[in-house]
Each structure stands twice: as C-alpha cells, then as structure tokens.
Amino acid sequence: MESALAVPRLLPHDSGTPVLSVVDMHTGGEPLRIVLAGCPEVAGPTLLAKRRYMRQHLDHVRRRLMFEPRGHRDMYGAVLVRSELPDAHLGVLFLHNEGYSSMCGHAVLALGRFALDFGLVPAPPAGVDEARVNIHCPCGLVAAFVECEGGRSRGPVRFHSVPAFALASDLMVDVPGYGKVAVDIAYGGAFYAFVNAEKFGLSVCSAKTRDLVDVASAVTEAVKAQFKINHPDSEDLAFLYGTILTDGKDAYSEEPTTNICVFADEQVDRSPTGSGVTARVALQYHKGLLELNQTRAFKSSATGSIFTGRAVREAKCGDFKAVIVEVSGQAHYTGTASFTVEDDDPLKDGFLLK
User: Fold this and answer.
1) How far apart are CA 128 and CA 328, in angstroms?
2) 2 has pLDDT over 80
3) Which candidate in 3, 71, 320, 350 could, as Cys together with 75 as Cys, close a disulfide (CB 3.0–4.6 Å)?
C-alpha cells in the first residue's frame, strides 16, 4: 500500500541556522561525514590557521554533526576548505569527538573517491584508469590515487603520506596499574604510541573492546604525562593523538598483523587506521623489520577490515630519517542527509554519553 503521508520538503527549523548537508561514507567500517553545505566560511590564511579558527568560532558545527542525536561518540567528519597550496585540489579539516586531528588516512581514502565523483578534480582522459587527488591535510599535502572508469571512482584508493618517522623506540613508560612498559612512538601525519596488547595480558584479537580501550587510554595518558612530543615543522602537530595496541607481529610476514586504535576521547577506530598504518610502517622500517616496497597487510580487530601499507621511498622530516608510505583501502558511500536545528531545542548542539 502506498503511503499517504505528506512529507514536507524541509522540516521545521530555525530559519537563521543553515541546514547542514552531508555525504556519509565509510572506509573499512570507520565512518566519514563530509560536509557539502551549511558550514560558514572558515577564515584563515593557512590550513592550520583555519583549524584554529574553526575550533574557536565554529565548534558548534563539529558538535552538531559528531555528537548525538545526529551522530555518536565514534563519528568522524570532514569539512572541505580552500587550501593555500597551489598544487592542492582541496583542503580538509578533520573532526572527531574531542576536536580536530592533523591527519586521517581513512578519510583521505574516502575523500579521494568523493573528490572525483563530485567533480572537485577533472576526470582523467580516456584510457587512463587512475585519477590523482592532491589533498591538503593539516599535516601537509597528501596524494590520493583513485581507480576509475568512465570518470567515476571504483575499487580501492591508495595515498602517499607526508614523511613518516619513528620518534622513540622502547621508551619506558610507567603505566598506572601495570608498571613500566616499553612503548614505541611514531608519526604518520599524527603521533601514536604503539604497544603489544599481550604486555597487559590481553589479546588484541579476542579481548573485549572496553578492556582494550581502558588499557590504550591508560598508555596515552601516561605518555602525555611523561614524554614531550616534538615535531620539527610545527607545534600544531606536536601532540599524541592516541595509542595503537598490536598483536606484536611486527616482523615482515605475508599474513596480516592485527591492531586496534584508540584516539581522541576514547574513540575507537573501526578501520586499521590509515595514519596509524603509516606510522607503523615507518616504525617497522626504522627497526629493520620491513624493506622498501615490501607490502604488509594490517587488520582491524574491530571489524576485520584490511589496509595495506608499504614504504615507497626514504625522506626527511627535519633531522629525522623518514619514509613516504603508501596506504591502500576501500571506501564506500552509505548515504546523504540534511541536518536541521530548531531554536528551542535544548540539545541542539549535541551531547555525548560516557
């Protein structure tokens, strides 16, 4: 039976508040909410300045899209902005439950498809089955390569990272409740602490997610309290984004190695984590466990989804020996939405439950 409901073209809303139109995607299970329209202009001469401006003046956009009732505490988002770099096709600010990150690999993989399909980059000429999309992230310029056919995206996407490097190896950190634990710290556009979950008596493959989150959060807080993070290019990049618990299988193997990433305010990445894979490849290369152009598979313990990563060439980041890492994964569209606000809604800016 056909519905007799009359659906209004636009729900009742505050006429002074722009409607936020979005495209939703996921990469390996990790969501990405891309803002199409409704976000006020983000001012600033550079991308990092724009990030500071949005944090100070437009944070309600992040809260409305990431928080309940429109989102959830593990939602992730992207606001597209103008880039000051002449080679960039687009600039992007990344949103999460705590604020704004410096890099997001799963988002870059999705944005590569999005940029091609929505005409932000020209379709390649006939006979060329891959389009290049230069995406300016807060950490720097990242190149995504999108498989395509007839000018539309298809299949997996790969990206080449900013220079990635190991910051500290076997750093002894006093984790409350667990004592001294050896932790590695590496940068893949964002800084992560890496530690084998077995050091805490947990299997990253079978332990309860809540137990893994508690341990990873304890490591993150301990590292922040006991170790100073520095980045040679900008203090805006010098912070620990989260902790990645691994299965300890860092030596090269054709079998996937499994990890789970806990970042921001105990947010759990459903994917293997693109910037985390970047950092982990750089760490394995630094330790002599991985050679150039040797591809490894990285598996998410949350969803079982797979990314691949390989160090494609050596580079420098300040005085650090670094590598450019190629990460590959599959992104999918999940829908579109228009979000409205009613002025008398006491929860219009969103909320989170612990």
Assistant:
1) 19
2) no
3) 71
